Amino acid sequence: xxxxxxxxxxxxxxxxxxxxxxxxxxxxxxxxxxxxxxxxxxxxxxxxxxxxxxxxxxxxxxxxxxxxxxxxxxxxxxxxxxxxxxxxxxxxxxxxxxxxxxxxxxxxxxxxxxxxxxxxxxxxxxxxxxxxxxxxxxxxxxxxxxxxxxxxxxxxxxxxxxxxxxxxxxxxxxxxxxxxxxxxxxxxxxxxxxxxxxxxxxxxxxxxxxxxxxxxxxxxxxxxxxxxxxxxxxxxxxxxxxxxxxxxxxxxxxxxxxxxxxxxxxxxxxxxxxxxxxxxxxxxxxxxxxxxxxxxxxxxxxxxxxxxxxxxxxxxxxxxxxxxxxxxxxxxxxxxxxxxxxxxxxxxxxxxxxxxxxxxx
Length: 361
Description:
Distance between the termini: 49 Å
Number of domains: 2
CATH topology of the largest domain: Rossmann fold
Number of strands: 16
Mean pLDDT: 81
Strand content: 25-35%
Shape: globular
CATH architecture of the largest domain: 3-Layer(aba) Sandwich
Largest sheet: 8 strands, mixed
Low-confidence stretches: 60-76, 237-241, 351-361
Order of helices and strands: HEEEHEEEEEEEHEHEHEHEHEHEH
Structural class: alpha/beta
Radius of gyration: 21 Å
């Protein structure tokens, strides 16, 4: 059996190398796009992307016009990644030489003892000496609470993955045209009020190209800051498209490994595979899941999400046991939070509160 990457992946990398050779001859140089990373007091995960950028401003448009165009989704996808670029990652005297992957992505873990909790700026240095600061949020070792959240149709209404609607939302609609799911930001704020140092991780099948937009969206609508684990659209080493469920499944496994003391609250929606994936993870690693919260899509949203008015049922392979983490469902954050709060109280041994609580949905 051949171990060579898929034809589409090889063709894509060859095209990128040809384009980059032309851009480099015109003075373009490697530049680092920082993504938010995470870690604990003894190790960190650094996430970034190396692309080529001109050292001279290319736009002669007016400031107002340029600002307007920057808000258009399609601008996020016009980048020139630097395949296999060499960079050096530095923090607190530790340094490691890293080669980006064929899409220019850097995903590296460093073991550094004695890190303080909070945000650290990691230096990522390109071959020509340009230094970029990549933020990494370090979680204290005693923290046991964590939040994992989907993005599409859980915190932001995007109507993915229906191709026409997805393309319209991603390439045409302005940032201000995106809508937040009602009550979800308030739910996250209330949930994390007693856990200010808890890790917050957004796991989505959306493209890394939208990372900057998503950060601005989350901040504008009051969602907690957190690391994002996104994907790279395009051919993989084995086929034309990557698997969204496999990406989420792998991300959950990595988080369980990176935060061995944390029990997660998993939040998603019933438009695609979140209930089955979260249930599967809870079955395999019950000690790592505190509770599961699922936002219920409306009938119209279900049609846009997967072409049917019924909830996608793909959890037949999951063996449901009474010891599994509790799961609650509701159509928005304001209705979901009382149910989730009750479930968390029961899991944490607090028991029901004096005031009347709604029943699990």
